[in-house]
Design brief:
Largest sheet: 6 strands, antiparallel
Shape: extended
Number of helices: 13
Helix content: 40-55%
Structural class: alpha+beta
Distance between the termini: 42 Å
Strand order of the largest sheet: 11-10-20-19-16-17
């Protein structure tokens, strides 16, 4: 029986696996603890109270289960997951490690959002990966795939159908994604068909460079670097023309060219200033669209909120008939359900009326962006369990606190009115 727990020391977060029977192969244990295998989480074996425990470092990483409970899975992320799985299977095979030790449950797969990389756990004491484990992973992906991404939906449900009929195995799924990725690269990027040896060693850098190359031309023209280049060119051109004009006696024709050069230098200065102004206006527009207090509002959220309000209204009417003018309203129905920022530097308020809500500083991966250095990219999640609101720390670096007590990573605590909540260095009061 496998037991999972989490532990955080001063600088590191760990996932701990405890098996009832630690009877795995010594070779496998040495391979994963003494080598840095690409795609696997670093592992240590520690002996505590006579027990052997496996410590996997998960600092700054989020589990697939925890991350995609609060956001939708796109085809790009789906491909990244299975291509990473293909890579780690090849890596473990090169170390002569059986594939059965790879854990592919959603809560055992971790990712670094900014890099787009996925990391896996290798358990040398695993009893083997059955077909049901693959089906469970595909069912989770099917439940959390982006409903507007038809390609991703078709891919997941097709794989799930074949896996349930036992016509598809994990190796074939991984190979299928690998082949599809290669075909798309050949069609879309013919000159980039072959990677260099350095890119083969780090394939993710190849995709990052490609994304940078595909950045919109408009953003490049108004970037800070472009504005600086315009200004430097203008100064150099004006300086050269000024030196020639006042040092040498130029003909009328050369003077015309000189004046045209000064005019061009002036245009470059205007272009530099215009790029700065347009960039500020563009950033301001982007900030308004994303915002520091941006929430995803779905039809399901609005429907659940309306049902909750209607139920509260009917309950209030029944209680008013029973008790006359005095109506008892529980705090859960009367509370504001907000976290109010405390302190001069904390002007953030977290609205908990529409749940779940994930907070962090990485726009696009959280429901509410809090731009603060002490906040992790994906810091914490707030969910509703019945009439209660729960807070879960999502493996944050600087921690999530309730009334001064730090939450264990990936564990939940119920919020009560008046609780003091701290996310990193930011303090809030729950009302």
């Amino acid at each position: 029986m496998r037991e999972i727990s989490y532990y955080k020391d001063y600088r590191h977060n760990y996932l701990i696996i405890r098996e009832d029977e630690m009877t795995g192969d010594d070779y496998q244990r040495k391979m994963i603890t003494e080598n840095r295998i690409r795609g696997l989480l670093p592992c240590q074996i520690r002996y505590i109270n006579g027990e052997m425990l496996l410590y996997y470092e998960i600092t700054s990483k989020q589990s697939v289960k925890g991350l995609f409970e609060g956001k939708h899975l796109t085809m790009k992320e789906l491909k990244g997951l299975f291509i990473s799985l293909k890579m780690v299977m090849e890596e473990t095979a090169s170390f002569l490690l059986p594939e059965d030790g790879l854990l592919i449950e959603p809560d055992m797969i971790f990712t670094e959002l900014e890099k787009g990389e996925f990391y896996f756990i290798y358990d040398p004491f695993s009893e083997g990966r059955g077909p049901q484990t693959l089906i469970s992973l595909l069912e989770f992906l099917a439940d959390h795939v982006d409903g507007e991404d038809n390609t991703a939906m078709q891919a997941v449900y097709h794989m799930l159908d074949l896996a349930e009929k036992e016509q598809f195995v994990l190796d074939e799924i991984v190979e299928w994604f690998g082949e599809e990725e290669e075909e798309q690269q050949e069609e879309a990027f013919e000159p980039e068909r072959e990677m260099s040896e350095a890119q083969m060693e780090d394939p993710y850098s190849f995709y990052e460079e490609k994304e940078q190359a595909e950045a919109p031309a408009f953003q490049k023209l108004i970037s800070t670097q472009a504005a600086t280049a315009y200004l430097v060119c203008a100064v150099l051109l004006a300086g050269i023309l000024g030196y020639l004009t006042y040092t040498y006696e130029l003909s009328e024709k050369m003077l015309v060219f000189s004046y045209a050069g000064f005019f061009l230098a002036g245009l470059l200065v205007i272009l530099s200033l215009g790029a700065v102004v347009i960039r500020k206006l563009y950033d301001r527009k982007q900030k308004r669209e994303t915002g520091n207090l941006t929430f995803r509002e779905t039809e399901e959220d609005r429907l659940s909120q309306r049902i909750y309000e209607e139920a509260g209204s009917e309950r209030g009417q029944r209680q008013q008939k029973e008790y006359g003018d005095t109506v008892y309203i529980p705090w859960t129905a009367n509370s504001e359900n907000k976290l109010y920022g405390v302190g001069r530097d904390n002007k953030f308020h977290i609205d908990l009326n529409r749940l779940p809500v994930t907070v962090g500083k990485l726009a696009g991966s959280v429901d509410m962006v809090i731009d603060n250095q002490s906040i992790s990219r994906v810091h914490a999640r707030f969910t509703r369990e019945g009439t209660r609101i729960c807070m879960t720390d999502l493996n944050s670096t600087n921690g999530t606190f309730k009334n001064g007590l730090r939450l264990t990573p990936n564990t939940s605590e119920i919020l009560e009115p008046g609780d003091e909540i701290r996310l990193g260095k930011l303090k809030f009061v729950y009302r």
